[in-house]
Amino acid sequence: MSDLGHVLVLAGGLSYEREVSIRSGRRVAEVLRAQGVDVETRDTDSSLVPSVLADRPTAVFVTLHGGAGEDGAIRTVLELLGVPYVGAAPDACRVAFDKPTAKAVVRSWGLNTPDSVSLPKETFHDLGASAVLSRIVDSLGLPLFVKPSRGGSALGASIVRSAEELPAAMVGCFAYGDTALIETYIEGVEVAVSVVDLGEGPVALPPVEIVPDGGAYDYAARYTAGRTEFFAPARLGDEAMAACEAMAVAAHSALGLRDVSRTDLIVDGDGKPWFLEVNVAPGMTETSLLPMAAEAAGKDLGALCRGLLEIAAGRG
């Protein structure tokens, strides 16, 4: 057994992002074993609680995406079990996972975020979809970006460039959630900034620029090798790079996150970043952004994951 003891990687779950989570968990387990860590990987089923009680891990690395992996639920269970874990506490997860709430919090800290409205499916049913959608276009203008208020991997998300496209976008959105976030679409460079805290405060890794071959960074573009071109670090000027890093660290702090997060931004034509959303359990697959950022920073992914586990174990 390694000096870190027995650690548990949680992967899988029952969200729409299950397959991505399994790939993230596999990658984290591999790089930790290369560091000499004794790793067990488990799904979140009825055997989880008894197994943890029977063989309590030193710490848990959560690689669950969407749903219970990021809304604080599984972390609440881990706290009930008295097991430390990598990542934000349940209350912070709940705030960050709900995109409209996260936008409101970061805006209160003075960060730029696109104007938006958030409405549940019932509102369109009760008041009439046509009338409500017309007012949204009148208020926010075009183009728009529509996505579920909770969830990730761009599932149910789409760009709307004409009023005629909006109804179909809403239908696609509601297939993955009961509440839609509709925001002004900012044209610019899509950037992801990972933040890690190994005990000396949150630090941004180099921003990663995202250039999907089809123009939209959708699910296929995210997880199919060769569908998207990445630049790490991003091809931005020094001032814009610094602004992106500062915004990611500020969002991490404003939302009360810890250990690790990833903030998604758009940098407009003037070099100004705009906050889109934050992820409390960043993807760790071969095409995920945090591993790219770590490599660009000259950091070994396994050593980084081990360091995060050591910080978590220390809280135990």
What is the secondary structure topology, with strand pairs?
Layout lengths: L5 E5 L7 H17 L3 E5 L5 H7 L4 E4 L10 H8 L9 H8 L1 H10 L7 E5 H7 L1 H12 L3 E5 L9 E3 L5 H9 L4 E6 L4 E8 L6 E2 L3 E5 L6 H5 L4 E4 L6 H17 L5 E8 L5 E7 L9 H8 L4 H15 L1
Parallel strand pairs: 1-2, 1-3
Antiparallel strand pairs: 4-7, 5-6, 5-7, 8-9, 8-10, 8-12, 10-11, 12-13
Helix pairs in contact: 1-12, 6-7
| Biggest beta sheet summary | 6 strands, antiparallel
Low-confidence segments, ≥5 residues, pLDDT <50?
none
DSSP helix fraction = 25-40%
Secondary-structure-based class equals alpha+beta
Q: Look at the structure and name the CATH superfamily of the largest domain.
A: ATP-grasp fold, B domain
Please write the CATH class name of the largest domain: Alpha Beta
Multimeric organization = single chain
Q: What's the structural domain tally?
A: 3
Our Rg estimate from Cα atoms comes to 19 Å
Give the DSSP E fraction (strand runs of 2 or more residues): 15-25%
The backbone outline, from C-alpha atoms, is globular
Distance between the termini: 19 Å
InterPro entries: ATP-grasp, ATP_grasp_subdomain_1, D_ala_D_ala, Dala_Dala_lig_C, PreATP-grasp_dom_sf
Catalytic activity: 2 D-alanine + ATP = D-alanyl-D-alanine + ADP + phosphate + H(+)
Function: Cell wall formation.
Pathway: Cell wall biogenesis; peptidoglycan biosynthesis
